[in-house]
Amino acid sequence: MNNKRLLSLDVLRGLTVAGMILVNNGYGESFQMLQHVRWNGMTPCDLVFPFFLFIMGISCYLSLSKTNFQPTAGVLRKIVKRTVLLFAIGLAINWFDHAIWGEPLCFGHLRLWAVLQRIALCYFFASLFAVYINHRYTLHVIIGLLVVYTIILLAGNGYAEDASANILAQIDLALFGPEHLYTKSPVDPEGLVGTISGVAHVLLGFYCGRQIKTRQTIEEKTIAVFVLGAVCVIIGFLLSYGLPLNKRIWSPSYVLVSCGLAALLQALFLYAIDIKGCSRRWYLPFQVFGMNALALYVCSELLAILFGRFGIGAVIYDAIHAVIHHLQWASLAYALTIVGINYLVGYILWKRQIFIKL
C-alpha cells in the first residue's frame, strides 16, 4: 500500500478543483454559501483553495519521498522549475485577462499575485523544508510560522479592514504599488506576507502525508489522518475566539480549521474508497478532475475569460435563466454547466491517458 497510488487523494483533489471551478463561475446573484465572506468568517466557498494547498502538501511529501528527500541537483532543478512555471502561468492568466480586451501592454497595472502565484511560493518553501530540514521538526516549524504570523497580525493591525492601517496591505503597497494588487478587498488575499501562513498550511498537509506514508496499514493511515483533522479543527475554532477566521488575511485559525476539515474529508475518503472500496461510479468524475487538476483549473480560468470577452457566458446564462427564473438557482446551474464543460475536457484527457504535470 505504501507504494500504491492513493486513489482517495486523487478524488479529494478532484473534488477540490471541481469546487474551485464551481465557486469561481457563479453568474449574477449566487447563493451566499458560494460567495467568499467579505471579512471575518467562513463559508464553504472559502474552503476550496485551502483544501488545494493542504492536498499539495500531502502530494509534496509523497512525491519527494521517492527521492528520499535528498537535495540533489536534479531534485532542486525540478523544484525551481515547477515554482517558476506555476508563477509564470498565474501571471500569464492575469495578463491574458487584459490582453483579450485589447491591453497586451498592461504590465504597468498587471496583478502580480493570484492563486497560482501563492501555490508556487508555498510549494517552493515547503519543498526546501522537505529536503533540507529534519522532518521531526515539522510541527515545530508549523507552530513557529503561525506564532510569527500571529505576532505580525496583532502588532500591525492585521485584522483591520482598512488598507491604510493594515500591515499586510501596507507592505504589499510599499513593495508593489496599488496597480499590481487585488482591488476588491483592503488586503490582497494572495499577498506576500500571507505566504508565511500559507507555508504553514502546506506543511500541515506535508505532515499529513508523512502519516499516510509511514503508517503500515490503511486503517492506521485513516485513524492518523482523522486524529490530525479533529485536533486541528478543535484548536482552530478555539483560537478563532481571539483570532477570527479570515481568508483574506489567511489567519492562523483559518489555517487550522480548513486544514482540519480537509484532513477529516481525506480520512473519510480513505475509509470509503481505500478500505471499503465503494463503487467507482460515485467518485469517477472527481477522479477525472484529480488526475489533471492543474490543467483543468487553468482551462477553467481561460474559458471564463473567453466567455466573458465574447459574451458566451451571457448567452448560456440567459438560456438557463429563461428556464430557471430564480436568480440564485440560475447562477448555480450556470456554474455547474461550466464545471460540466471542464469535466468533458478532463474526461477526454483521462480516456486518452493524458496527464498534464509540471
Task: Explain this structure.
- The protein has 358 residues and is mostly helical.
- Helix content is 66%, strand content 0%.
- It is built from 13 helices and no strands.
Overall mean pLDDT: 93
Tell me the major beta sheet. Answer: none
- Taken in chain order, the helices and strands follow as HHHHHHHHHHHHH
Structural class: mainly alpha
Distance between the termini: 25 Å
Number of strands: 0
Low-confidence stretches: none
Rounded Rg = 20 Å
How large is the share of residues in beta strands? under 5%
Number of helices: 13
* Structural shape: globular
Helix content: 55-70%
SSE arrangement:
Blueprint: H1 7-24, H2 48-64, H3 73-99, H4 115-132, H5 138-155, H6 167-176, H7 195-214, H8 218-239, H9 252-275, H10 284-291, H11 293-309, H12 312-323, H13 327-351
Structure characteristics:
358 residues, mainly alpha, 13 helices, 66% helix
Give a short summary of the structure.
By secondary structure, the protein is mostly helical. The chain has helices spanning 7-24, 48-64, 73-99, 115-132, 138-155, 167-176, 195-214, 218-239, 252-275, 284-291, 293-309, 312-323, 327-351.
